[in-house]
């Protein structure tokens, strides 16, 4: 388990540790199997090209999973993810290095829970935010 | 601007439509396989021995694992001529951990439908909320999805 972070240690405006992902076509096949989403645009190059795509593209839900990892890896083991949202604005392709990033937008207490809101996103190698989102999580206090 | 496809009646008939229930019995192996597929090495969803001493007392599912229930989707009450689909995004809310052995039942409800003209021509945006309940009738999570047909 990673070293626990605490609510008291964090500040609004603080950046999250960057998550680096290296998705491959092999991973898309594994994700298709694990999730049951067998839409061919995610692993069949001919099918993807015939659908006016550059080639296979990442499942939106896999990118959602990357954003989940961005938060849970940082807040584990005691932190609890409450909300996770994202929008699929741009395509991501296997072979590209995808960065998960975020910034703390709000630190507050609600119903006795110590909460943090973040803006989060995935970034492609051109620095474009293909998958912007938000997250809310609860942390222990020291 | 008037819609070219959706009528007020179609919108009214669509909002509130529910899917049949979709069920999944959560297995430890399926959680670990999902974690491997997303390449997330967190011991909370990979290592029962390590997870046992953690706050959940054992392996739990990673945040988007419930996607493995597959499509939980309500039918449209009309013929949908736009057969291409795009996933617009997801908003999850989490209430209880999902554990091995849980029996999860998911039901989707369409909460909004509208039409826009875009670079892909006429696009139908449908917002659906999926509620996931466990065998204790606790809502473990909800997922609100936007899907786009064009």
Residue share in β-strands of chain B: 35-45%
The CATH topology of the domain at 8-26 and 69-149 in chain B is what?
A: Thiol Ester Dehydrase, Chain A
What does the main sheet of chain A amount to?
Answer: 5 strands, antiparallel
**Oligomer classification:** heterodimer
How far apart lie the N and C ends of chain B?
Answer: 18 Å
What is the correct CATH architecture of the domain at 7-24 and 58-138 in chain A?
Roll
Q: Which stretches of chain A are low in confidence, meaning pLDDT under 50 for 5 or more residues running?
A: none
Secondary structure: helix percent of chain B:
10-25%
Please give the alpha-carbon distance between the first and last residues of chain A: 18 Å
Question: What is the CATH superfamily classification of the domain at 8-26 and 69-149 in chain B?
Answer: Hotdog Thioesterase
What does this structure look like?
Chain A has a domain at 7-24 and 58-138: Thiol Ester Dehydrase, Chain A (Roll), CATH 3.10.129.10. Chain A is 23% helix and 32% strand. Chain A is built from 3 helices and 5 strands. Chain A has helices at 25-35, 45-50, 60-75; strands at 19-21, 80-87, 98-110, 113-123, 129-138. Chain A has a 5-stranded antiparallel beta sheet, with helices on one face. A 5-stranded antiparallel beta sheet of chain B has the order 1-3-4-5-2, with no helix packed on it. Helix content of chain B is 15%, strand content 36%. Chain B is an alpha+beta fold and 150 residues long.
List strands and helices in order, with pairings.
The complex is a heterodimer of chains A (142) and B (150).
Chain A: E1 19-21, H1 25-35, H2 45-50, H3 60-75, E2 80-87, E3 98-110, E4 113-123, E5 129-138
Antiparallel strand pairs in A: 1-3, 2-5, 3-4, 4-5
Chain B: H1 8-14, E1 22-25, H2 28-37, H3 48-52, E2 85-94, E3 103-118, E4 121-133, E5 139-149
Antiparallel strand pairs in B: 1-3, 2-5, 3-4, 4-5
């Amino acid at each position: 388990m990673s070293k626990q972070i605490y609510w008291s240690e964090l500040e609004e405006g603080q950046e999250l540790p960057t998550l680096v992902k290296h998705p491959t076509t092999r991973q898309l096949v594994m994700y298709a199997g694990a999730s049951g989403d067998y839409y061919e645009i995610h692993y069949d190059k001919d099918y993807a090209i015939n659908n006016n795509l550059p080639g296979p593209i990442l499942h939106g839900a896999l990118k959602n999973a990357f954003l989940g990892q961005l938060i849970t890896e940082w807040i584990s083991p005691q932190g609890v993810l409450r909300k996770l949202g994202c929008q699929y604005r741009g395509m991501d392709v296997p072979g590209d290095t995808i960065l998960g990033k975020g910034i703390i937008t709000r630190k507050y207490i609600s119903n006795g829970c110590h909460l943090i809101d973040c803006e989060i996103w995935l970034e492609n190698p051109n620095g474009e935010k293909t998958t912007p989102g938000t997250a809310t999580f609860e942390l222990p206090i020291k | 601007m008037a819609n070219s496809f959706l009528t007020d009646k179609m919108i009214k008939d669509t909002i509130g439509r529910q899917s049949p229930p979709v069920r999944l019995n959560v297995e430890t192996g399926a959680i670990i396989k999902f974690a491997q597929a997303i390449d997330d090495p967190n011991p909370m969803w990979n290592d029962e021995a390590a997870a046992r001493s953690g706050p959940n007392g054992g392996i739990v599912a990673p945040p988007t694992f419930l996607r493995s229930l597959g499509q939980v989707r309500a039918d449209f009450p009309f013929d949908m001529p736009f057969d291409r689909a795009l996933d617009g995004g997801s908003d999850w809310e989490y209430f209880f951990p999902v554990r091995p052995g849980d029996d999860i039942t998911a039901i989707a409800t369409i909460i909004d439908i509208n039409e826009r003209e875009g670079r892909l021509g006429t696009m139908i945006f449908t917002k659906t909320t999926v509620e996931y309940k466990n065998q204790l009738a606790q809502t473990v999570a909800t997922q609100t999805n936007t899907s786009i047909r064009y």
